[in-house]
Amino acid sequence: MIPLTFFVDLKGNIVRQLTETPGYDAEATVSPTGDKIVFTSTRNGDIDLYTMNIDGSDVRQITNELGYDGGAFFSQDGKQLVFRASRPKSEDEISTYKTLLSQGLVMPTNMEIMICNVDGTGLEASYEAWWQIGRCTSVLMASALSFRVTMFRKAIILICGCVISMDTS
């Protein structure tokens, strides 16, 4: 797998490579405070989220549940993460996921929108997203979480790559 995480200048010139582990290190986002980066990696054999300092130091694993975790964004205050996740449940789903992952592949599947603190604590599913032929529809699962909708509105739209419908009442 080729993707790695790089620090580039405003003209797109690579200043330095931030990650050097074999496998997939990509989907990086800088925190609003400019001190942290969240990224997706297969460095542990699964597709998980990690954070690191802006200079590439202090790499920490954030998620550790079997399945795809990616497309993460920071909250406006930099204290929480929102990301998409897919968790294989049945033995057949787990076997298929592991087989494909060993080949550097994943397949389209149902995704959930997850929220956690930047250190990985407080993980919870906030919305369910159904992905069909490149389209996404997201349904707010609990109006009690509406304050998070506002906080993560831009991130959710970027994660899904489409306009979504949300009940924020």
Detailed description of the structure:
There is one protein chain. 16% of the residues lie in helices and 37% in strands. The protein is an alpha+beta fold. The strands form three sheets. A five-stranded antiparallel β-sheet has the order 7-8-9-10-11, covered by helices on one side. It starts with 5 loop residues before the first strand and ends in a 9-residue tail after the last helix. The chain has two helices and eleven strands. It has helices at residues 91-102, 146-160; strands spanning 6-8, 14-17, 25-30, 36-41, 48-53, 60-61, 68-74, 80-86, 111-117, 124-132, 135-140. It is globular and about 45 Å long.
Record the SSE blueprint.
Blueprint: E1 6-8, E2 14-17, E3 25-30, E4 36-41, E5 48-53, E6 60-61, E7 68-74, E8 80-86, H1 91-102, E9 111-117, E10 124-132, E11 135-140, H2 146-160
Antiparallel strand pairs: 1-2, 3-4, 4-5, 5-6, 7-8, 8-9, 9-10, 10-11
Write a brief structural summary.
With 169 residues, the chain is of the alpha+beta class. The protein has two helices and eleven strands; from the N terminus they run ββββββββαβββα. It has helices spanning 91-102, 146-160; strands spanning 6-8, 14-17, 25-30, 36-41, 48-53, 60-61, 68-74, 80-86, 111-117, 124-132, 135-140.
